[in-house]
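# nightly structure sweep
# worker-07 picked up a monomer target from the shared queue
# config: single-sequence mode, recycle default, output format = structure tokens
# input follows
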Amino acid sequence: YGKNTIKFLRLHKEGKKHCVKEVEVCTHLRLTSAQEYLEGNNSLVIPTDTIKNIVLVLAKKNGIPSLEQFAIDICNHFMTTFCQVVYVKTYVQEVPWQRLHENGVPHIHSFICVPDGIRFCEAEQCRNGPLIVFAGIKDLKLMKTTQSGFEGFYKNEHTTLPERHDRILCGELFCKWSYGECKDFDFDCVWYMNKIRECILEAFSGPPDCGQYSPSYQKTVNGIQMLVLSKVPQVQVIEVVLNNTFYNVLDMKNLGLTNDKEVLIPVEAPYGSCACTLGRKKFFEA
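# output follows
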């Protein structure tokens, strides 16, 4: 059991300069006994309102040095404070506020919410077990208008889809990776300096002057995973889900016009989805 959607804004002031972190936190616990379920005995139950207040107090006292460290702080608190807790899992996601810039100068206290993907993390720990940390990005909408196709696929009497060698590739991406057993990582450094998000964009789009051909959504998913694993050694396993959006070329002949893939209509439903989990061999062997 636990508390979901604990939402708050943490404001940190450095003189005149302000920094913000707006997050949503979900924390779930497992206890030494299931007596609250089986017998209605609540003597070991930590009220969900208490869970919420603990999260807010930790944000006040410790700040949010990084999403991952905040999730770790929450896990550590429940493990060290409550002997009846045997497992804790914390999920944290961030509202994508970015500092405003005016003529290249960063503003000291103004921000803009930019919908370019939502950063999130998870930390989980069993008593006497290792602390495991995951991180990721979701709701990242991507599109390229060419250098994508789908040909040579299996066909039978139920196949109506035509082959395409030039199509729009568009989708909403979910990406989650594991750092394995938690070590002394600078999580923000991994996020910003190793530029995992930029690896995703590079693998999806290819070189800026010419792009890179994608023969399928599946190959694009694999390309993202391979590039991240090759450039970010801290990542052990990476899961990518790409929910596809398809576009059909609008037939405008009855309007007396030729439509050379200039006006397209999105197919709202059903839509496709590709998912894959890829990891380093040594991680799976361990």
